[in-house]
C-alpha cells in the first residue's frame, strides 16, 4: 500500500486510527491534531512499513511538523 495522493493518506489515518480527516490539510501541524503524539507516530510508521514492505526514514518522520511533510516522506521513492 502506497498512499500516493494525500486524500488516500488521510483515508488511511481514518481507517486505521479513527482520525477524522475533516479540516486536515497538508499544512496542518501535527501538534494540533487531537491524540497525535510520539506513540501514534510510531504506530503509524510500523503500519506503513509493514504495508509498504520497506523501511521509512524514521528520523525525518519524527522531525516532520506537518501532515504534508509526513505524507512526502511516506511517498518518497527510494
TrEMBL record:
Q: Which domain of life is it from?
A: Bacteria
Q: Which InterPro entries match?
A: ACP-like_sf (IPR036736), PP-bd_ACP (IPR009081)
Q: Where are the transmembrane segments?
A: none
Residues annotated as domain Carrier = 8-71
Please give the Pfam families that the UniProt record associates with this protein.
Answer: PP-binding
Q: What is this protein called?
A: Acyl carrier protein
Amino acid at each position: 500500500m502506497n498512499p500516493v495522493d494525500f486524500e488516500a493518506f488521510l483515508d488511511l489515518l481514518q481507517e486505521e486510527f479513527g482520525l477524522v480527516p475533516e479540516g486536515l490539510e497538508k499544512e496542518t501541524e501535527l501538534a494540533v491534531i487531537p491524540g497525535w503524539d510520539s506513540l501514534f507516530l510510531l504506530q503509524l510508521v510500523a503500519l506503513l512499513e509493514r504495508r509498504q514492505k520497506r523501511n521509512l526514514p524514521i528520523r525525518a518522520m519524527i522531525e516532520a511538523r506537518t501532515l504534508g511533510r509526513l505524507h512526502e516522506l511516506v511517498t518518497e521513492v527510494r
